[in-house]
Design a protein that fits this description.
With about 180 residues, the protein is an alpha+beta fold. It has one domain. The protein contains three helices and nine strands.
């Protein structure tokens, strides 16, 4: 009976702490779910950034709105299973509609796609650079400032788990590697 209580208490403690998210497809799917819960399934974003630190694990910074025509957005951070508002943002747009400078999550753009690309980038580092364990330190989607959605894409920065050189990957929305630098 005592062991059962200990197991249940440990399980509740782990659930309440929120646990650390992984930097793979499954972890990024959880992040996408958290974004949809916070901003709504039909939200518009100008930026989503996922970062990793050894101390906290994954954290998210997102700037979005559910009403793009209002030109008012909110920037929020998700850290250790808590959302905190960082700022209110007002867009100033000349030439074009607000939606031209934002993106939505769904068919063409997906946070879970970032997770897939993280796995692809890790494989590339293992195959080409013989780095067996790499971590995603930053993953981003930013709306272009000029409203040209053809410039939208996925950007990732990975580092060896034990530190060292940063490797930067840029992918188009279809997941094709556009640039790989270090």
């Amino acid at each position: 009976m005592r062991k059962l209580i200990l197991v249940i208490a440990t399980g509740l403690l782990l659930c309440s702490c929120g646990g650390k998210l992984s930097d793979d497809k499954a972890g990024f799917q959880e992040i996408e779910s958290k974004l949809n819960d916070k901003f709504g399934d039909d939200a518009f974003y100008t930026s989503i950034m996922v970062a990793y630190t050894e101390q906290i694990g994954m954290l998210v910074d997102a700037t979005g709105t559910d009403d793009p025509e209002s030109l008012k957005l909110e920037e929020w951070n998700w850290v250790q299973n808590n959302w905190t508002q960082k700022s209110d943002v007002t867009l100033e747009i000349t030439g074009g509609e607000a939606k031209d400078f934002m993106f939505t999550l769904g068919d063409k753009i997906s946070i879970s796609k970032l997770g897939e690309l993280a796995e692809t980038a890790k494989k590339k580092l293992k195959d080409e650079k013989e780095i067996d364990e790499a971590i995603v330190t930053v993953a981003r989607i930013d709306s272009p400032n000029d409203g040209d959605k053809s410039k939208l894409g996925y950007n990732l920065t990975l580092e060896p788990k034990n530190g060292g050189t940063s490797f930067h990957f840029s992918y188009d929305l279809d997941g094709n590697l556009k640039d790989f630098t270090y």
